[in-house]
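#structure-requests
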Amino acid sequence: MERLVNYFEHIPSSHRSLILVGGITLFWLVESAVPLFRFRYRKWHHAGINLFFTLTTIVINFVLAFMLLQTSDWAVRNGVGLLPWAQLPLWAEAIVGLLVLDLIGAWLPHWTEHSVKFLWRFHLIHHTDTYVDTTTANRHHPGESVIRFVFTVLAVLVTGAPMWLVFLYQSLSVILSQFNHANIELPRWLDRVLGLVIVTPNMHHVHHHYVLPVTNTNYGNIFPYWDRLFGTYHEMPGNAIQYGIDTHPEPHEHSHIGGLLKMPFQPYRPPVGELPTKENANVPAN
């Protein structure tokens, strides 16, 4: 355990970059070999849009990283937060810390963005992707990146998490997000087993169904427990899912970086609901 703590306490930036790039590459290859849907799209063009937003997220997190570091150092130094108060063994501190960081830093902002119209306008960009794959994981408007960063700082303050735990959480968050967005479907038995511990693609793809109320379910990122606990868990067959969002169905609205950047500042569009007919380019691989 001490080795793990020491590694993430001093993790080089190059290793964090490798986790990001390595994860995308790995799941890109897996989903190309055994896809859930055989999308009819320009894969590299689609990836280019999502990687642009990945880069904006990296830049924003890099610029604001000092706030995260200062918050963690201040909390640890002053004994503020759940972990300093609980005085747990190191292994238990890691488990409890990851659970609370995931709840406050990932599940809560995700639920909030679906509940508050102003915040939804920024999160909407993530849901406009009609070809969900591993690159969709980081398809976040720069404004949403700032919103999520604020919740991450709050999570660090509440937990009193040291930086090694924050870096461990962020690394797991990146990998799991890439995994559960990947264009794959796990065998049911494997999904049931992994789903006891982590959010799987089978679970998260449901969240990307294009219409309410399904869109407002399965908010989890790392751990699957919060949706079951708060009543937002939902299941449906992978081949029944239609990606995108009903308020922005036209390709010209969600396939260009400029339009996506301006989307949060356009008038709010209320949900439309089920369409009479589905014109979806998603073709099940099997």
